[in-house]
Amino acid sequence: MPSAPSSIALPAETTRFLLRLSPEILLKSQQVRRQFQETLRRNLRTILTREGVEHTMRHYHGRMMLDVPKAMRARTRDLLPKVFGLGSFSVIDAQVDNTMEAITSAMVSLYADAIRGKRFAVLAKRIGPRVISTREVQYIGGGMLKDLTGATVDLDHPEVLVRVDITEEGTYLFCDRVEGAGGLPAGTQGKVVSLVSGGFDSMVASWQMMRRGARMDFVLCNLAGASAERMVLQAVKVLCTLWGGGLQPRFHVVDFQPLLADIRTHQKQSYWQITLKRLMYRVAEGVAADIHAGAIVTGEALGQVSSQTLANLVTIDAAASLPVLRPLIGMDKKDIMTQARYIGTAPISEHVPEYCGITPTKPATTSTVERVAQGEVGMDPALVDAAVRDRKVIDVNTVTAADLRTPYLWADSLPEDARLIDCQPPEFYRHWHAPGALHYTVEDLKRLYKEVPKDGTYILYCHRGVLSAVMAEHMQQRGYAAYAYRGGLTSLRTELGLDDLEF
Ligand SMILES: Nc1ncnc2c1ncn2[C@@H]1O[C@H](COP(=O)(O)OP(=O)(O)OP(=O)(O)O)[C@@H](O)[C@H]1O
């Protein structure tokens, strides 16, 4: 077998990656393409520098060449598939002179062992001006490999595809080709605000818009206190760390307690969810105005829950004057969950409980703007402005693991001597409560501190487990041994040997 070619131009300690742009970027005008390439280069620099990967990078005929130290090869290979705007990439095995002898000799030394006993093909491409015939390279190189190894040539379904890119500066040989994230480089499109609950849908919707190049800030309408805020922030942090390279996202936390109280006081129960979403849109619009964002993103999918029927979406939509982008509108839940697992947010989203403090017994599935607006007449519009003004803004890139640490809040069983506290809204408590349970809601905390002694263990429950976690956290801060029953009412009733409840 011929020895390894002496003309390999890559320094011994360097790994060179060939990066290809998303195919749709190549279809754009030269000016736009250049602009996108430049943004992609900047984003890559930010990601690699953040991860401590020394590198050099340059453009080459619509592609990019990235050199990193060999020791950083695996790390770089892990990072690249999560960079938006990259169509695919390859690790270059060798760079040789543009002579038939150098090319075929490198092919044999690099790939003879890999193709022995397999089906293979050689695919040569010319990048830039013609320096050597690609057909000859395929024919002669392929023939040599075949004769030497006895492997079978299969142009349609090769098990090993030897790629040869012939350029002015030398010939690159590689086999590896990894799919990139596709989409457009982060930041090439306008700025949006994404309404996030931390659930599967809003995280996937945010990812989809980031993938299309949007710059993004996140807005949480906080219905459930500090523990919920930390969970949602954690989901956002994971999303941005994995996929947000090059972006400087911020997380806006808007306290919704005063708005919830206003809804409960003025709106008909069956419209609570619809008005809640309308207020979320208005708050998002307020944040968007402050940060000069041009659209709102949500995770709504047609018909998924009662507030997402077509009629209700129309009613909700009317609350916003900015465009509302709903990338999941036509997706099935199953596909959304698959994407959530792929993007890495699912493990957090599955622990973000749904808020249960404003769940109507019979939510409306058909509404009109007029009817819902009628119920909102007595509500105070200044509350929206105040909530936007007083919001907390967190720079996501600076959030650390310590910021996300949650106190131990959850109980999975009922200790024998524990007292139960039901923290559902009064009408739900009246519908059913555990025998002997005390009843306090978030609004009753002051009274609770006066009336309930600190000795002993308290287990709190509510419909889904969100409010109880909020209250348990408050009580823990006051020195109580208080825990939220994980899984809410359904789990508690199972533990008590009862059936699930009809609401
Ligand atoms: N507390 C919240 N703060 C900000 N946005 C929210 C909040 N709750 C819901 N949203 C927005 O409204 C959309 C629809 O929420 P809804 O709870 O009706 O449906 P969902 O399918 O459970 O959504 P998700 O899985 O994102 O929680 C969410 O995808 C999100 O964009």
Name its key features.
503 residues; alpha/beta; VC0802-like; Rossmann fold; Oxidized Rhodanese, domain 1; 3 domains; six-stranded mixed beta sheet; five-stranded antiparallel beta sheet; 19 helices; 21 strands; disordered N terminus; binds adenosine-5'-triphosphate; cytoplasm; RNA-binding
How would you characterize the overall build of this protein?
- ATP binds at residues 195-196, 277, 299, 308.
- Belongs to the ThiI family.
- It is an enzyme of class 2 (transferase).
- InterPro entries: Rhodanese-like_dom, Rhodanese-like_dom_sf, Rossmann-like_a/b/a_fold, ThiI_AANH, ThiI_fer, ThiI_N, THUMP_dom, THUMP_ThiI.
- Its EC number is 2.8.1.4.
- It is a single chain.
- The chain is of the alpha/beta class and 503 residues long.
- The chain has three domains: 14-179, 2-Layer Sandwich (VC0802-like), CATH 3.30.2130.30; 191-404, 3-Layer(aba) Sandwich (Rossmann fold); 410-495, Oxidized Rhodanese, domain 1 (3-Layer(aba) Sandwich), CATH 3.40.250.
- Helices cover 40% and strands 20% of the residues.
- The protein contains 19 helices and 21 strands.
- It has helices at residues 23-26, 30-50, 73-79, 100-115, 134-149, 200-211, 225-243, 257-266, 272-291, 310-317, 333-343, 346-349, 369-375, 382-389, 401-404, 426-431, 445-451, 466-477, 488-495, and strands at 14-21, 56-60, 63-69, 86-91, 94-96, 119-126, 152-153, 160-167, 170-174, 178-179, 191-195, 215-222, 250-255, 295-297, 324-325, 392-395, 410-411, 419-422, 438-439, 457-461, 481-485.
- A six-stranded mixed sheet has the order 15-14-11-12-13-16, sandwiched between helices. A five-stranded antiparallel sheet has the order 2-3-1-4-10.
- Helix 18 links the parallel strand 20 (457-461) and strand 21 (481-485).
- The longest helix has 21 residues, at 30-50.
- It is elongated.
- The protein starts with 13 loop residues before the first strand and ends in an 8-residue tail after the last helix.
- The model is unreliable at 1-8 (pLDDT under 50).
- It binds adenosine-5'-triphosphate (ATP).
- Adenosine-5'-triphosphate binds next to helix 6 and strand 12.
